Queue: 4 jobs
Job 1
Amino acid sequence: MDAESLKQYLADSPPTIVPLTIKPHFEALSDKEKLYAHHISVASFAGTRIVLRQISPESEPIYDFIITLHKHCNGDYQALAKQAGFNADELQAYLDYAAQFLGNLGNYKSFGDSKFVPRLDPKRLFALASVEPKALKLHEQFKHSIFADHDVSKMHLGYPSAGHVSTYYPDSPDITKEEIAGVSDFLESKGLLPENTRVKKTQDGYDILIASASDNPSAEERDLKESEWTLGDGKKVRLVFGDYSKEMATITEHFGKAIEYAANDTQSAMLENYAKSFRTGSLEAFKESQRNWIKDKGPEVEVDVGFIETYRDPHGIRGEWEGFVAMVNKERTRAFGKLVSSAPKLIPLLPWPSAFEKDTFLSPDFTSLEVLTFAGSGIPAGINIPNYDDIRQNIGFKNVSLGNVLSAKSPNEPIPFIQPTDLDLYQKYRDPAFEVQVGLHELLGHGCGKLLQETSPGTYNFDIDSPPISPLSGQPIKTWYKPGQTWGSVFGPIAASYEECRAECVAMALCCDFSVLEIFGFGDGTQDMSNEAGDVLYAAYLSMARAGIAALEFWDPKSRKWGQAHMQARFSILRTFLNAGIEFCQLEYEDKENLSDLTIRLERDRILDLGRPAVEEYLKKLHVYKSTADVEKGRRLYEEITTVEPFYENYVRPAVLRKKTPRKVFVQANTVVGEDGKVGLKEYEADARGMIQSYAEREYV
C-alpha cells in the first residue's frame, strides 16, 4: 500500500482517551443493588472474546498479546521498553495502538469498520514480542495480519466474496453473498432467528453456529426441534450449538447469581430468561427476557445484554455481543418523561397519515443513564431497544440516553468545518442540541411508525379491502410485509443505515417544534429563532451538517462502500440540506485546490421555511417505503442520495481526512467483591496504561 493511502489506516496518535465517570452514582446504590450490578457487569465483560471473534481472526491473539505483555512487565512499561530496546516514541506508538485496540475491542474501528494498524515497523514489533515466550507465540499468529494488507479490500469489514473481512462467516472465504442470502432466507422460513448465529460453509453445505453454553440442548429447549435439513440443491444445513461455549457458560453463571439480588419478580423472570437463552441458544427465550425487561419500569440499575445490534454483519441480520449496566440520573430523566408524555401530540406532526402509524403509541421508559459498564466494541450516546418489530409494535420498547457518554470530553478538541462566526455558539450549545437530538431520535424516531403486514396467512394489520392511500402516489398501497418477513429481512444490508437515517430525520423535523425545546428547558414554547431555543435549534442543524461532511471519513473509495450506518445516514441529510438550495445551506471555501478552509454556511432564519420542509419530504419517502416493504423504491432512494460523487470523493473527502479527529475511547471502572462480600469500585487513569490495566484485571475474560 502506498504511503498516502496508508495514512488513513494508521492508529490514532494519540488516541482520545476519556474516563467513563461513574463513582458518585455507583456509590449511591444499596449493597444489594451493587451486587446485582456487579454480576451483570461481569456477565457483560465475559463476552469480550465473543466480540473479538466476531471482528477478525487476528483480534483475539492481539488481545492476548497486549494482556500478556502487561502482566509480564506488571504495568511497568518503561522497564518493558528497556527490555525490548524501544525508544520513547516506539513505546508510545505501541501503547497508542493497544489503547485504541481495547477501546474498539478489535483491530477494526467500531465506528467505521475500517482496519487500523500500529505505527511501528514489523521488526520492532517482533523485538517487543521477543521479550516473553508466550507473547512471541501469539505474535506468530498475527504478525502479518496486524499490519496493512496490500489488498485494500481486506482493510474493511464486509462480504467475504467482495474481498472483505467478516468472521460472521468463519473459515468460509469463498462463501458468496447469494449463498449467505439463500441460507438466511431458508432459516427465516423455518422461523429461526439469526442474531446469535454465524454461518460456516462446509464441503456439503452450511453449519449454522449458535452461541450457547450447551453444545447439545434438548429438543424441548431449542427454538426448532429439527436440527438438519437438505436443500433443493442437495446441500445440507445443520444447526451446531456451543459457539463461544466457554464464554456463554460464564455469562450464564453470573446471570444465575444476579437473580439473588433482583429487585422484583419481573427482574427475576428477566434474568431467568436471559440465563436460559445464553445456556441453550434460544432466541425465543431471549425475546421473552426483553418482554420482561420492558415491563421492568424505572429500575435503579438498568441493564441489557445480548446479541443486539446488527450493524457489523455485512448481511445486516447477525448481532454483535454487547451488554450494559447503568444507574438512573433522575434529574435528567424527568425531562425525558415530559417528552414521553408529549409523544402522542408530536407524532401527528410527522409527514404521513395515521394509517402509517401505530394505532396506539406505546409509552416507553425514557431514562437518562450514567454508565457503569458498556461491554462491546463501542459505546453509543443513546439506545432504543429491543430491535424486534413484533415486540416494539405490540408491547413497547425502552429508550435510554447515556449521560456520562454524552458529557465525556477531551480538552482542546478541534472543531473543523464550523465558520468562525458560529464557533462560540456551536461550542456552547452543541451538547444541549445533541441531547435533544438523541431524545427525539431514540424515542420518536425509532419508536414511531407502523409496518403494514400480513401477520399470518389471510390476516392483516390494515384493511386489505380498502388499503391505506400512499401520501407519495395518492394511490392505495400495493406492497406490504408477508408472513414471516421482518423489516431487516426485507431491506437486508441497507436496513440499519436506512433506519438510522429515518430516526435522524424525525429528530431534525421535530426539534423545529419549540414546544419540544421547552421540554428540555429552552424557551417558553414560543417560536422565536432569536432566543436561546433558536440557538439550540441552530446548533442542532449545524451539528448535523458538520456530521454529514465528517461522514466521508467512513466511505472507502476503493470498495465504494460506507463503513458506518449512522454516518451514511448523516451524509444523506447533509445532501438534503444542500438540495434545499443555496438560500439555506452551502459548502464554502476559497481554496479550490484542497478545500483547506472548507466550512458550512447554514442560514439560521431559513431552517423553518426551507430546512424543515426539505427534511420532511425526504423523511416521508423513507417512512412510507419502510412501512409498505417497498424495498425497490426505498433502496433506489437511499443509494442515490448516499452515492459519493466526484466532488465529494476527490475534494471534500481528502479535506476531511486531513482534519479528522480521533474518536473517543473510554476507560471503564471494574467492580470488585471484597472479603466482606461487599462490592467496591476500582477506577483507572484515563490513559493507555489505565486502559490496558482495566482489561488485564478482568481475569474471567
Note: The chain is about 45% helix and 15% strand.
Job 2
Amino acid sequence: HPSSQDPSLCSGTDLLLASVLTGCVDYVSTQGLVLGVYESEREDDSLHLTESAAGVDRVLSGKLTELLKISGPGLKKGKSRIFYGLHEDFPCIAVVGLGRNSLGVCGTEYWDTCKENIRAAIAGGCRVLQNHVLTHIEVDGCNDSQSAAEGAVLGLFTYDDLKTKKKTRVTTQLHGSGCVSGWEKGVLYGEGQNLARYLMEAPANHVTPSVFADTITNRLAPYADHVTVHKRYRGWIEEQQMGAFLSVSKGSEEPPVFLELHYNGCPDNAQCPLLLVGKGITFDSGGISLKPPSGMDAMRADMGGAATVCSAIVTAAALNLPINIIGLAPLCENMPSGKANKPGDVVTAKNGKTIQVDNTDAEGRLILADALCYAHSFNPRAIVNAATLTGAMDVALGSAATGVFTNSDWLWEQLHKASVVTGDRVWRMPLFQHYTRQVTDCQLADLNNVGKYSRSGGACTAAAFLREFVTAPHWAHLDIAGVMTNKDEVPYLKKGMSGRPTRTLVEFAAGLANQA
C-alpha cells in the first residue's frame, strides 16, 4: 500500500494497517480517546475542533486535522470516525460530530440542543471504543463536561448480569483541562439514571418488593449520616389503614413493603421542602383483569416510578444537595389469585374515601392514593409523584416527554425548567373538573378507579382520581408510562428500560435547593 509509509495519509482500516506496518500501534494498550468536532456554520468554514481536540491536534503536528479533511465530508451531528495509531497513549481515537456550536435552548424542542448533541455524540463514541474491547476511555469535555459525562455513563450502560457473555466493562475519565466538578456531577447524574434502569430492567423474580427495598438501602448506606431508611411491612401498613394499597398486594405471595427514605441535606432545618412518591408495582399482571400476554414481560418495569424517585434521592445524597427530601415507595405485585381484587369490589383508602375497583389493572392509582394521603403528614412544600400509570399517556405523548398533571403553576415552572437542562422533557397535561366528574360519578362508592367513559382521556381521569387524595397546594403527578422504554428515540440510551426522568427529578431538587 503506497500510503503505508505515512500514516497521516490514511484513515480507518487503512490507517490500522499502516500503523501495524510502521510499528505505531500497541495492541496491549486498552485506552481510547473520544474527541469532538463541531459542524461547519458555513460551507467555506474550516474544521472547528473543540479545545481538547485542538490540543491533541497540536501534539500530533496537525495530523488529526489532516486526516479529518481527507477521510470524507465534514462530520455531521452524531457521526464518528475512528483513527488508529496516531497517538502513543491512545491507539484508538474516536472523533465525533457535535453539530453546530451556535445552538442553545430551542423554543420548539424545549431543550438545550447543544447539550443533547454532546450527550448523543459522546455516547456513540464511547460505544464504538467499547466494541474495540477498550477498557478505559478518556473523554473530551466538549466545553460542557457535565453533558459529556452524562453521555459517556448513560451510553455505556448494559444490563447483562444474567448473561454468561458480558460486555466489556469500561471506565471513563475527563480528558484534558475541562471542568472536573462538572464531569463529576454528570457522572453522578448518569449513574443515578442507570440505577433506575438497572432496577427496571431486572426480572421481576430478581427484584421483588423486598429486594428492591434492600437494593436502595444498600445504595444509601454510604450516606447513613444524613439518610434514614424505614422498611415498613404489612403490620404497619394495616395500622395506617392503607386499604387501597393492601387490596392490591393481597393477590400475590410476595409481601408488600412500604419504603420510606429521609434525606437530610439541611440538618438544621426540620422542614421538608420536597416529598417524592413513586409507584412500586414490581410486576403487573393486571390482576383478575389480566393483561394480554404480548408485552407483559415489560411489566417488570411497572415500578419505574419508585425506581426513578429512589434513584433521584440516592443521587441527591451523592451530590450532597442542601435540601431535605422524603421519598415514599409502596412496593408490591399485582397478581391474579383467589385473594385478588375482583371487578366491582369496594375498598377504603387511608383518608376514608371508598373506591369501587372496576378494573383491577388500574392498580397503580390505588397504591398511590394511600401513599399520597400519608405524604401530607409531613407538611411538605411540594409533593411530586411518579408512576408508569396509563397506556393512554404513551398514546398521547409517546416517548417524547413525561406527562405532568399539576395544581401549581410554580411547581410546573420548576419541573419544566429542570427538564430543559436535562433534555428529559416534561409536558403539562390538563387537570380539568371535566375529568374529576368522570371518576366521582360512581354507583357503589365515593370514587371509581376508572373513568366512566373507559378509555377516553384515560391518563387525565387517572390524574383526576389521584387529585382526590391531595390537599397540598403544590402537587404534581408525573405519568412516565410513555418514557418507560427506549427503542432508538434517545440516542444516548440503548434499547431497553430508560430510567427516565431520574435526571430531571435530580435537577428539579437541585433547583429547589438553590432557592432555599
Note: Residues 1-28 have pLDDT under 50 and may be disordered.
Job 3
Amino acid sequence: MGLAERASSSSGARLGMGAGGAKSHAYIQYPPLRCDIPGAAGVMYDDGNKLLLVPAPSKVYSWPTNQHPPAELPGVTDIKEGPILGVRYSLDGKILAIQRTNQEIEFVNKESCTGFKQQCRSGSDRIFGFFWTDCPACDIVFVTTSGLEMYTLYLSKNGLKLVEYKKTHVSWYVYTHESRLVLLASGMQCKTLSGYQFAAGGIVRLPKYDVTMTKQEYNRKPVLAPEDIRIATMYGRLYCVQVDRVALQLHMYRFYRDAVVPQGSLPIFSSHVAISVVDNVLLVHQTDSQVVLLYDILTDPRGPISAPLPLLLRGAPSPAASSSSNTGKGSRRPLSTAEATIYGKGWVFINPDLVLDHMHGLLWRVRLDLEAVAASSSNLPSLLSFLQRRRFDAPKAKELSLIVIKSMIIERRSLRLIASAMDVVTASYAQATRPSSGTGGSGYQPMNKSTAVSSGGITLSAGPRAGSQSSSNPVGKAMSKSKIVEIEQDAETVSDAESIISSEIEEAPLTSSQEQTSAPSSSRVLSREGSKGITMESSTSNSSSLLASGLQGLRMGLPAPYISPDDVLQSVFLAIEEEMCTDSTFYVAAIVEYMRSTAKENVRVPPGLQALMVQLLGRDERYHELRQFVAGKLIDPSRTVALQLLDVGTNDRETRKLGMEMLRLLHAHCDYVKLLLQDGRLLEGLRYIRQNKVDTIPPALFLEAAANSNDIEKLASVFRFCLDFLPGFQQTPDFNLYSSRLNQQCIVGSGC
C-alpha cells in the first residue's frame, strides 16, 4: 500500500472528498455567514475589525467573520437615513464612519450617540475611500483623487484635525489592514504604483515602481485595473501580486523600505483569475474552468504544489436530507441555489481568504485540505517541508507528517530519501526551539529564510544572512554517512568496557549558537512610537533571523506542526516495531539516519530511542556493532540505555559488562551495587560504596547477601565493615539480628 493509499484509508471519506466523491485541495465550508437584511444598501467588509457590514436605511448590521459556525444575531448601530458609499468602524469599535458622498464622510459616536461630518480638503477632489489606522501619526486616512489626507480624531471637539497631506495623482487605490499598506495607482495606464505603510512604528513611504504589462496589440496599451493587484502577506513578507492577463502570468514584487524588488513570475492558465492567500499559500482561482492552483513561495522550483483541482463545498446537507428534514427547531436549513453555486456572478474575493457573494449576502472562507495535498504529492521531502510550514491546521499537519515518515520506513524507501525527510522535520523543530537573542517579535519565520523581527512587528529583509553554525560533536561526525549498518573498518578496536565508555558523561546541547541582528535603518520612518503591525526593512541591511514564529507559538501555547524526538519515537519507531520485527537491519538504519539529522542540528534524542536501537541490535545478535556504536558515541550513556544493555547482555558477557560500566560512570549507585550482589561480588560492592561515599544503600542488603552465601567468613567481613565504616550501626536492628546469627554459627562451628 502506497503513501497516498495509506493516507486515504486512514482518513476515509474525509480525505479531500466533496459531494459525489470528488477530490479537492481547497474548499469552502458550509454554512456560510448569511446577511439577508430587507432593504439593505449592499454588503461591505471591514478588514480592520474583521466585520461583515450590511447598511440599511436607518441601521448598520455587523457580523464577526472569524466565527464558524457564524453568529446568527448581528450587532446593530442606529444611523440617519441617507446615501451610503462606504462604512468602517474605528479600530476600537466606538466610532462608525459612513461615506455619504464623494466629498463627505459622517462620523457616529456609538457611546454618546452624537455625530459630525468631515469634507475632503478640496471641493474639486473626490474621495475614493478611507481607512482607520493604529499609526501614531494619524487616526484615519482619506484617499482622494489628489492624494492622502491624514486626520487625527478629537472626540472632545467633535471633529477631525488634518495633520498631514500627501499630494499625488491617484487613479485608484488598494489597501489591506493586515499589511497597513496602501498602494496608489497613477499614470495613463495606471501601472505606476506608489505606497505608504501606516504601521504602529510610523509612516513608511515606498519608492514608486512600474509593473510589467504585456501589450496585446501594437497600438493598444492595456490599463491596469484594481482587481489586477493584490497585496499579499506570506510568511511575514509583503508582496504585490499582479495579474498579467495577456501573458498569463502572476508577477511578484516584494516590498522593502527603500526598494520594490521583482521576485519572478508564476504561470497561470487563464485570464479569468482571482487570488486568495490561505495559511501563507497562494491560491489562484481560475474562475472560467473552476479549478484552483496552489503555489507555495518557499517551494523550489516555484511551480504548483499539485495538479489543479476544483473548489468544492464541504459540509452541505445532501438534497435527500434537506427534503426529509423537519421544519421544527434544530432542523438543518436546505441548501439554496446561490449556496450551491461555485464561482457565482456575485463572488468577490476579499483579502486574504474570504469570498463575498454580495448579490446573495453570503460570506465564505477558503480553506486548504492538507490530507488531499498529502495524498496527491509524490515528492515526500518537499511535502514534509510544506506541512511543517502550516499554521492554520497545525495538529493535522503534524499528524500527516508523522504518517509520511512512518510510511516511508514501512515501505522501505531509499535511505537517501528517508535522510532528506528526517533532515526536514529535525531542522524545523530545531529552529522552532532554538533560543533567540531578542525577546520581542511575532510572525512566521520560514526555514532557511531571512526575517528580522523588530520589537513587536515583522521586519522584512533582503540583506545577506548570517547563517548559524552548529557546534561540531563526535556524534555528527560519526553519523555523517546516510547508510550506516556498521562502523568503519579502520576504527580503533576497543577491548575493555571502561575504555569504550567515556569517564566524563557529557550531554549534547539542545540548541545551536544564537543569532544576532542589526538595528533597522530609520531614514524613511516619520515616527517610531509603538511597535505593532508589519514593517519593512531596508533591502541593503545586514540582518539575520531573530525569532522564529514557531518559538513564539510555543511560548504562547499555540499549536504547531513541529515534530519533536519524542513524537518520532512514540508515533513512528515504536508504532512500527511489530511490523519490522522480522528484519531490523533497515529499521536500525532508519533510526541511525534520524540520529544523524538530530546530531547535525544539536537536538538531543530521548534515551528511549537509543534503548530501542540497543534492543534491535541485541535481537539480531549484532553485539559487535552495538559495542562499536557505544564506543563511537552514537549511543549516549544513560540509565535507560544501560539497563537495556544489561537485558541484551544476558546472552553476551561483554555487552553486560558494558551496561554495568555505564551505570558506574553514570553514578547509578543503587543499580550498580545490586548487580554486583547478583554476581556474588560482595566485597567489591563494599569497596565501591566506601570509595564513592555512598550512604543511600542500606547495610541489610549486604548482610542478607552474605548470610545467604552460607559463608561465615564473608558474613563476618561484612559485619566488621559495617561496624568500622557505618556510624550508629550498633544502634540499628540489623546489628542485633546479625550479631546473634554470627554467635550462633560460631557456637555451632565450635561444637562440631
Note: The longest strand covers residues 159-167.
Job 4
Amino acid sequence: MIDLYEVAGIKGVFLSNKVVENQVKTYITYNKGRDWHLLQAPATDLQGNKVYCEEPYCSLHLHLHVSENPYASGNIVSKDTAPGVIIASGVVGPELSSVNVSIFITSDAGNTWREVFQEEYSVFFLNQGGSLVAIRHTPLPIRHIWLSFDEGRNWDKYSFTSSPLYVDGVLGEPGEDILIMTIFGHFSHRSEWQLLKIDFRPIFEKRCTSEDYVTWQLHNEGEVCIMGMKRIFQKLRANVRCVKARDQYISQMSDSCTCTEADFECDYGFERQVDGSCISAFWFVPSASTRDCITGDSFFNTTGYRKALSNNCTEGSLLKYSPRQQKCPSQAPRGLQLFTSEGTFVATLGRNVTFLVFLEEGLSLMTSMTVDFGDGTAISYVNISSIDDGVKHIYNKVGIYQVSATASNHLGIDKVFLYLHVSCHLEQVQLSAPLVVIKDKAVNFTTTLRPSSVGTVTYFWWFDNKSEPVVTLDGAITFTFSREGSHIVTVQALAGNIVHQDQIRVAVYDYFRSHPLVFSSNLDEMNPGVSEWREDIGRVVKTCIVQVGHKDNALFPGLPTTAEVFIVPERRSRDRGMNEEWAHLDQVLFQQIIQKLLVNITPLVDGSDSGHSGTAVIMLVSVVLMGLAVFVIYKFKRYSIAGAVHTLWTRPGELFDPIK
C-alpha cells in the first residue's frame, strides 16, 4: 500500500492505493482490510454518455492525499455528519494518473460513483454535511461558486463577487451549524489580500424536522451485514433546504448479524488462499503453540481463523471457524534449537556467553534440559521453561568447543550441537628467518604470537613484492628465492577481526661464507637482561666491523652470547670460482675482526676473575685456529672479498634488531 484513507463516519471502511503489476490501483474494504476490491467506474460520464470500463482491466482510481492546508479541501474528503458521502479527484482507466482528472462523488460509501466535474475543484461540506460547496481549483481569477443540496447530483451556480478574484483559500466559520464561509485572495498579483464573507443563511428556508430525513442502510455490493452488524443511518432528503440544528447529528441504528465466514480473518501463522480459505504458512508449526500444555489439561486450538477486530457478529452455525478445545497431547521433544544470544559462533576469552535454547515441539514443563559447554562443564534443568532467559558460561581457555543441548522426557530425546570458537585479542606477531640465504635453496620462516594462544589464526605471506599473498593456517612456511638481492618478506596474522603485521629483509646470494664466534660465559654473567646492555655490546661489535671496512650488520639479543660473521664474494669473483686469493683475504678479514673484538670486548668482562678472562682468550684463540683451518682448506683457490658483513646474535625464541 502506498496511500490509505479511512472514511469518516463509518467504521471499518478504508480506501487504499496499491501497486499491482507496476500499476497503482485504488481498492476499498468494508471489513478493516479482510477483503479488498476495485472501485466500480461510473456507468455514464458527466454528459450522460455510457462509460465502457470492465474490471479488472479498468476501474475508478482516486487520489487519496488529505490536505495539510486548513484553507484547502484536499484530494479526498468525507465527514462524520454526512455518512456514505465521499468526494475525491481521480480518473477512470487501468491505473491512477494525474492526467484528465475529474471529481467523483459517492453517496453509498463507495458502492457506486458519479462524475460531477471534469476539472479539479475544491469541495467543502456545509450545514453539517447537508449541503456541498464547490470552488474551481484554478490559477485564474473566478467569480462563481457551485452549491448542491442533493449530495452532488445537481449544482446551482452563484456569483460571490462582482470582480474576478484569485482565490488563495477558503475558511469556514467556527461551529458547523453556522452557514458562513470566508474566501480570501487578491484581485491582482499586486493588490493586497481581500476577504469575502458569504452568508448562506438566506438560501435555507427553515429548521429541519424529522420529516426531512430518510433512512439509508450501509451495504457492500448488496450485503448488509458488515462487521457483524446491520447499520442504518439517517440522511437529509434530496433538495431539502433546511438548517440542521446542533443536536440533529445523524443517528444510527444497528442490529447484530449471525457470524459468517466473512467475519473471520486468518489467524497468526495462516495465509489466505485463492479460494478464501486460511492455510498454515510454510514457516509456521501449529503444534508449537502447545509446548507449554501439560498432559491432562486442555487448550483451545486454532482452526486457522479468528474473528476480525471490532466485529460484533453473534455466534451462529459456523462454529467451525472458532477455536476448538482439545486435550493436551503427549509429545516427545523435537525441533530443539541452540544458539548464542548474539547469533554468532565466536566468543571472547573470559567473557560471559549466553546460550539460548528453544524447543519447537514437546511438553516443555515435563522436559528436562542438559547443556554441555564442551570444556568439561555441564548444567541440567528440570524443565525447559526455567531457562527462558538463556544459560551463561565463561570459557577460560582458547579453543573450539562442541556445545550440546539435550532435551528429554519419558517419550524421547532430542539433541543439538553448536561449535563455538573462543579466542582472545592478538597483540603482536613477530617474524623470524635467516638474514642471509642461498638462492634456490628452501628457507624456513616462522612466527611468534603474543599472547602465544589466541585461537584460530590465518596467516597471509607476501614474497618478492607479489600482489597476491600465500594464505596458511600455520605460523611457519618454507620459501625458495629464485634471484639474488635484498627481499622484503611480510606476514599478517588475522585473529577474529584483528590483524597484526611484521616484516624482515633477507639478503639472497649464490654463495657466502660464515664464521661462528663464541664468547666467554663470563660475559653472560654480566648480562642484566635489559635492552640497554645489549645495545652497548652491540655497539662495540658494530664498531669493530666498521673499522675493518664493513658496515652492514644485524644484532639479536640472547644467551649464550654468540655471533656469526657472514662474508659474501663479489659477483666477478663468483664468476671465476673460488680461488686461493679469496680464501686468503677471507682469513685476513676474519683475523682483523677477531683482533678488534678481543681488544674491545675484554674490558667489558670483569678483569678480577682471571679464570673467566683466560677462558675468553682461549675461546677467541680457538676461533683464530678455526680461521686458519679454513685458510688451509682453500689455499689453492682464489677469491676476492665483497664488503658485506652480517653479524648475527641469537637466542632461541627471541628476535630483535636494536641497531639500524
Note: DSSP finds five helices and 47 strands in the chain.
